[in-house]
């Protein structure tokens, strides 16, 4: 009997249990339990201003979301914002990676500078760009006027057609460095012989990029796309700092909707249901991309 | 206290069986070599003896003590690795002292032991260097030092010489043999190199597919291989294996080739594989079977000469003959073969007959 | 080299210089403008056209922040004006220094606890072949892919029910949930790069798992440990949404929360906000640049692995 127990829980098992227990405990309490609890909340009509009555409503919250036109508006805003952010981030990251993968004096300083946006708190990122976009004192107006691209100052963030793009710009500025770092690592792994072979075969710079760099970059590129999508789809800080969903509903995204629904209207039931929908969407999206990737690479 | 007994020792990874009900009794002070190609289960067996791999089934005993479930740090074994496995952040001195420090040995005693061991292994001048500043041979000496400083009763060696170049390998081989003679400890030595196995071992266990093919002294393994696998794994150049059958007259037959066998060895009509070691040929003489063959390649080795010949029935053989024989490409010659030195295996089971 | 034609080399140098300049302009320009603004008086930064560089370096804004606690901010004093900030000292200004301490406290706790939890778990997952290894790995993986937005509502409710709203402890625990899965992946990929034979040697030499971790894995993974510490501190220093939901006042509010309060207060002095932004940016940027090498290898290793 004792031998059997010993067999099932030998020294390795006992040590591992002790080493892993704290993490599992923390994650269960702060991640797993809230996720399950959130599901329970999403099945009830919980409004914080009415704490005692919290009837079970089943899937009603979910049904209500899909019938809510604000939700579909937010979906379209989020989609536009995410696509723009991800695409611009990726393109810029490739360019930056190409630059920093070269060896030249000052390259190490530039690599250090690259970390500045990454380390900048998103709140500061928001206020910084808001200040740059400022309608009267901002840098953007002054700069464009000086160059002659505009004739008079404009309220940039107040323009519904531009708001999302301007917020996306701030997001790109902060996110691009990590993406570039990932791509540089992938580039460094490309064997030098491939470039030498391509040179011997007579390929010029552009051909070498298209036929050697780009194919080798694909895993890194896919990783960046998945990661940036998952991050961008749930951006919130910039929206709170810069526009609060406005002007009008120009920057009314899903995470903003969830915030408003939950912490302004205090409808926790629907808020939780929305969070669930967004989480599942992110999850399925990345799962699909990874599956698709797995087949292609 | 250092006899090792494996009873039905088994290791499975999922559905793959790496070691299959292995029985092996290693005596006190014995030098046991586990020999086989990669993937044969020899390293897994060693790891199970060390405690580094959990034993799926079976029992492992050190003397009378069941250590099947004992973690490695309680087993009092020492081990030397192919990659040396020296701690890169510690100096040579700290590397050697480490096992003693873990056992809370008094400092003075540790110092004495380290000095003693480094003296023996001629690495005293390297004590304050880091492993990255040492050559491969020096590293392996340090690794040996770290193993013997504990004076363990069981030494485990996992291909310790495979990363060294040929000359160094020879000198380290004799160093290990000297160590074994001096320490009187039990050695279990894993290798895929037959020369190491032959020169070092008291007994060799030849393994394949997680099973022991043959367990015997080096001489027994070489001169009485249990099956065609063992026969072809040992010997350089490898043994000649010729498939054929036993003719009605009791001779081995393959096409036009006929060879005399010891009388009454095998019943006629049986499908067999004949084994002939390259060196088991001589000048024709009475009492020897004779073999006509045409020489297709002559490779002088200095001490002797290797011949590739074609015997009747288009049977290609490799033979080793004294350097004094004057042989030229294209010669037809007659060789004498002692029937008692021929090996016969069943063609189906590959087992020795 | 001397034999190589000069023209392509000059061409390459010009191209590199051009793109480097663009890069610096885009990446560092906005921050430089922020710093420049923080060193000007309110009057100077509200000039049209703006002053690209401060006409004279003026630390009045920083001075105002550091001394904000000693000022009684009332309607009267605000009307009287403050010379440095153009008279628009925000009402929450006194909270800034306390929130800086809160951020620092939370960040250090998170960095330390995160490392403690992650190192042990990563060692077990990377090194020990135990039953439940895969289950543990998947638990960690799952918590890593769940978006924080799904955690905000329930975490708020859970922490409110526990009565821990507006405590630093609630923030620490929450940030651990965000940082630990990622750090575990950084460390696992680093640990797996340490030769297995070193582990085997340590075990044979007499180390248990604790000893192998202490004598082999920790000394050999210093870069990953530094990366983990930095990553955890920065994440917690920069985090906004959870802090916004889980804190209410100066007892637990962190720097980003107080600063966001300034930004949304329309009466606030721009120069003051900019100075606050610069204060919030200094520690993380300093850390990032200081530990650049470790961060790059650590972050990318963890990301590629997961």
From TrEMBL, chain A:
Its main location: membrane. It holds the Pfam family BPD_transp_1. The chain crosses the membrane at residues 16-40, 80-100, 112-132, 162-185, 238-259, 271-293. Keywords: Cell membrane, Membrane, Sugar transport, Transmembrane, Transmembrane helix, Transport. SUPFAM superfamilies: MetI-like. It is a multi-pass membrane protein. This is Multiple sugar transport system permease protein. The lineage of its organism: Bacteria, Pseudomonadati, Pseudomonadota, Alphaproteobacteria, Acetobacterales.
TrEMBL record, chain B:
One of its GO terms (molecular function) is ABC-type transporter activity. Pfam families: ABC_tran, OB_MalK, TOBE. It comes from the Bacteria. InterPro entries: AAA+_ATPase, ABC_transporter-like_ATP-bd, ABC_transporter-like_CS, ABC_transpr_MalK-like, ABC_transpr_MalK/UgpC-like, Mo/tungstate-bd_C_term_dom, NA-bd_OB-fold, OB_MalK-like. Keywords: ATP-binding, Cell membrane, Membrane, Nucleotide-binding, Translocase, Transport. SMART domains: AAA. Residues 4-234 form the ABC transporter domain. This is Carbohydrate ABC transporter ATP-binding protein, CUT1 family (TC 3.A.1.1.-). It comes from Falsiroseomonas stagni DSM 19981.
Automatic annotation (TrEMBL), chain C:
Gene3D superfamilies: MetI-like. CDD domains: TM_PBP2 (cd06261). GO terms for cellular component: plasma membrane. The keyword Nucleus does not apply. GO terms for biological process: transmembrane transport. Residues 100-291 form the ABC transmembrane type-1 domain. The chain crosses the membrane at residues 106-128, 135-159, 165-191, 212-234, 240-263, 270-291. It is found in: Cell membrane. Belongs to the binding-protein-dependent transport system permease family. This is Carbohydrate ABC transporter membrane protein 2, CUT1 family (TC 3.A.1.1.-).
């Amino acid at each position: 009997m004792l031998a059997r127990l010993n067999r099932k829980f030998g020294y390795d098992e006992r040590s591992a249990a002790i080493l892993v227990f704290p993490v599992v405990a923390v994650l269960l309490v702060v991640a797993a339990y809230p996720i399950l609890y959130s599901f329970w909340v999403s099945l009830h009509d919980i409004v914080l201003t009415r704490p005692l009555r919290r009837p079970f409503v089943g899937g009603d919250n979910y049904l209500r979301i899909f019938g809510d036109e604000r939700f579909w508006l937010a979906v379209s805003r989020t989609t536009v914002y995410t696509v723009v952010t991800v695409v611009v981030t990726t393109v810029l990251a490739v360019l930056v990676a190409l630059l920093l993968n070269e060896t030249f004096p000052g390259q190490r300083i530039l690599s250090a500078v690259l970390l500045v946006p990454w380390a900048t708190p998103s709140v500061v990122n928001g206020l910084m760009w808001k200040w740059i976009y400022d309608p009267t004192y901002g840098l953007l107006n002054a700069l464009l006027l000086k160059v002659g691209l505009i004739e008079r100052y404009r309220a940039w963030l107040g323009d519904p057609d531009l708001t999302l793009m301007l917020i996306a710009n701030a997001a790109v500025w902060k996110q691009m460095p990590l993406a570039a770092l990932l791509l540089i690592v992938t580039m460094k792994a490309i064997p030098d012989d491939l470039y030498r072979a391509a040179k011997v075969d007579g390929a010029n710079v552009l051909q070498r990029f298209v036929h050697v760099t780009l194919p080798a970059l694909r895993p890194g590129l896919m990783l960046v796309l998945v990661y940036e999508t998952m991050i961008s789809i749930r951006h919130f800080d910039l929206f709170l700092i810069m526009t609060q969903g406005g002007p009008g509903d120009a920057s009314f995204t899903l995470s903003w909707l969830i915030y408003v629904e939950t912490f302004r209207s205090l409808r926790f039931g629907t808020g939780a249901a929305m969070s669930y929908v967004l989480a599942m969407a992110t999850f399925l999206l990345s799962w699909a991309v990874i599956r698709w990737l797995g087949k292609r690479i | 206290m250092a006899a090792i007994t494996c009873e039905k020792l088994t290791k499975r990874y999922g559905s793959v069986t790496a070691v299959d009900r292995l029985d092996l009794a290693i005596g006190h002070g014995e030098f046991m070599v586990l020999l086989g190609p990669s993937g044969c289960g020899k390293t897994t067996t060693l790891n199970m003896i060390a405690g580094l791999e959990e034993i799926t089934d079976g029992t492992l005993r050190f003397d009378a003590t069941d250590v099947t479930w004992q973690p490695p740090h309680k087993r009092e074994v020492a081990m030397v690795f192919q990659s040396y496995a020296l701690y890169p952040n510690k100096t040579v001195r700290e590397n050697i002292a480490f096992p003693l420090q873990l056992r809370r040995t008094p400092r003075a005693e540790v110092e004495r032991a380290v000095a003693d061991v480094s003296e023996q292994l001629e690495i005293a001048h390297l004590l304050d260097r880091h492993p990255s500043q040492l050559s491969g041979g020096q590293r392996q000496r340090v690794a040996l030092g770290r193993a013997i400083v504990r004076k363990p009763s069981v030494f485990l060696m996992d291909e310790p010489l495979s990363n060294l170049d040929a000359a160094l390998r020879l000198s380290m081989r004799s160093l290990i043999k000297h160590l074994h003679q001096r320490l009187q400890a039990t050695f279990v030595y894993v290798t895929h190199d037959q020369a190491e196995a032959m020169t070092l071992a008291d007994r060799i266990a030849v393994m394949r597919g997680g099973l022991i093919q043959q367990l015997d002294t080096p001489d027994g393994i070489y001169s009485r291989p249990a099956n065609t696998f063992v026969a072809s794994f040992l010997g350089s150049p490898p043994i000649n294996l010729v498939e054929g059958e036993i003719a009605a007259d009791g001779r081995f037959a393959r096409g036009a080739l006929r060879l005399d066998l010891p009388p009454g060895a095998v019943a006629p009509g049986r499908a067999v594989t004949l084994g002939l070691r390259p060196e088991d040929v001589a000048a024709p003489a009475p009492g020897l079977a004779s073999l006509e063959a045409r020489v297709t390649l002559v490779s002088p080795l200095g001490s002797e000469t290797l011949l590739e010949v074609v015997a009747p029935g288009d049977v290609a053989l490799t033979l080793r003959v004294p350097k004094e024989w004057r042989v030229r490409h294209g010669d037809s010659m007659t060789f004498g073969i002692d029937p008692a030195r021929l090996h016969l295996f069943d063609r189906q089971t590959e087992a020795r007959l | 080299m001397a034999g190589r034609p000069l023209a392509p080399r000059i061409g390459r140098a010009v191209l590199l210089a051009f793109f480097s300049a663009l890069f610096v302009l885009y990446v560092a320009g906005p921050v430089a403008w922020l710093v420049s603004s923080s060193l000007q008086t309110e009057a100077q930064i509200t000039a049209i056209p703006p002053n690209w560089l401060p006409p004279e370096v003026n630390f009045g804004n920083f001075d105002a922040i550091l001394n904000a606690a000693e000022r009684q901010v009332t309607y009267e004093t605000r009307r009287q004006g403050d010379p440095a900030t153009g008279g628009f000292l925000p009402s929450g200004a006194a909270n800034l220094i306390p929130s800086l301490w809160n951020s620092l406290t939370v960040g250090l706790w998170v960095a330390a606890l995160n490392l403690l939890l992650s190192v042990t778990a990563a060692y077990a997952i990377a090194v020990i072949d135990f039953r439940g290894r895969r289950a543990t790995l998947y638990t960690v993986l799952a918590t890593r892919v769940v978006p924080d937005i799904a955690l905000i509502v329930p975490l708020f409710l859970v922490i409110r029910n526990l009565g821990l709203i507006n405590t630093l402890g609630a923030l620490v625990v929450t940030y651990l949930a965000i940082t630990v899965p990622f750090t575990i992946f950084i460390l696992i990929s680093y640990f797996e790069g340490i030769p297995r034979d070193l582990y085997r040697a340590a075990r044979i030499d007499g180390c248990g798992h604790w000893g192998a971790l202490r004598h082999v894995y920790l000394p050999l993974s210093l870069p990953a440990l530094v990366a983990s510490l930095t990553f955890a501190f920065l994440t917690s220093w920069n985090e906004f949404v959870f802090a916004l939901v889980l804190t209410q006042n100066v007892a637990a509010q962190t720097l980003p929360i107080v600063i966001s309060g300034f930004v949304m207060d329309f009466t606030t002095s721009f120069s003051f906000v900019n100075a606050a932004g610069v204060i919030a940016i200094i520690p993380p940027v300093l850390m990032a640049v200081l530990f650049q090498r470790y961060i790059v290898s650590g972050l990318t290793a963890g990301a590629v692995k997961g």
